[in-house]
Amino acid sequence: MLLFFALHGSAKAENSEDIIAGSDVALTGGAVVANVQTGGAMWFNPAGVARLDGRSVGLTGAVLSYSRTRAPGILSSESGARSDGVFSAVQAIPRALTFVMSPRPSLRWGIGLFFTRSFDKFFQDSLTVAPGTPETSEFFATADSERSLYHISGTVAWKKSERFLFGGGLDIVIASQRLSETVSGAYGEDGNGGTFSQSLNLDQSGGGLQMKVGLQWAPVPRFRFGWMVATPTYLVYLSEEGTRTESISPPAGPPVFRGTQIDEIRGTWSGVETGLTRVGGAFLERWGWIELDLIVRFPLRTPELGIDLKTKADVRLGGVFRLTKRLKLGAGFFTDFSPERGLDEFADTKINFYGCTLGVDFANKEEPTERGEDGFYLALSVALRYSHGRGELLGLTFPTSFPSSGGRIGQPTPVGVTVNEIGINMAFKAGF
Q1: Structural domains present in the chain
Q2: Which of 53, 241, 282, 290 could form a disulfide with 34 if both were Cys (CB 3.0 to 4.6 A apart)?
């Protein structure tokens, strides 16, 4: 468990808290709420756990992910000079570990460990203008943010019949947020020099709970309906450590320094994850299945954590197609729209993503081991995932010379941003 949660990377923007949990999720891009067939049901629809006979273990992770971000002018001058604004990152992330068993023919229970980073970013850029001009000279800025959520999920599901399944779960959630921002300066020559620096370092963490409930229903042959709802996650305690400093050297007068510091642990009732509902329908045939899902996330506002999210809706469309008794092909399409209401701090983003997945699943036998059967079922899925995003990023525009009145240097300025990401996801399932 320690190794599972210790391996994590950085440097990409993600809008939602969905994760790749299970082979069916990896293959279809998340279109699984009506027909989930792995331990990922604990995340996407607890009722799906009731469909898992015998005992099963699943492990899912992003083996490799590469993203490239372009935001020209994230740093700019009033004279028109702009920074390049090109960033890239490579990461490898474990996502989910699940275990399910069936103590009785109609009863299933499962436990899962899920790791999601709801919003990570890393930007670093500089703007330099030749000395001797009245333009800004030598500005540097960096922003690094990581919001991580760890879920320990427990689920109980009831199989009333082959047509109706019901399940519910309780998650213990550990949330953490780390923010680090630096804006430097240095004017010179005709800019009536001076120095300016601003920094923010903030670490927040807390623990809370989330509840989920869901059902799957097959009203007619070859069609299955799925629905689930999850409450918002509220932290019951919050630990905060941080400093914010600002120093400025006006052309006339002594340097000015301002700073604040916080270090406390307190009880709280702070929302950290939005409530949501998923609804979907799946068409099943001997050759496989196709599913269409709608995911609605509700608004959430928590000023002390910098969270201000509006209602958003996304779609998932995917399917799994049987090529042979042991080999399956999966494909999917998904959207991931930004829930952010506005841009407030340097490097804040509002990006809408569109993506697709394509992968294969290979197993040692046709169907998973059922309750009471001997033998092992082993399956490995490998899926390619691509997404493209466009939106806005909040940059900074600096004056051409040091302000005579002092004060804050650098005005927030939205700039266009594009993100392209490609990754390889792998999922392993063992049934016994």
Answers
A1: 2-431 (2.40.160.60)
A2: 282
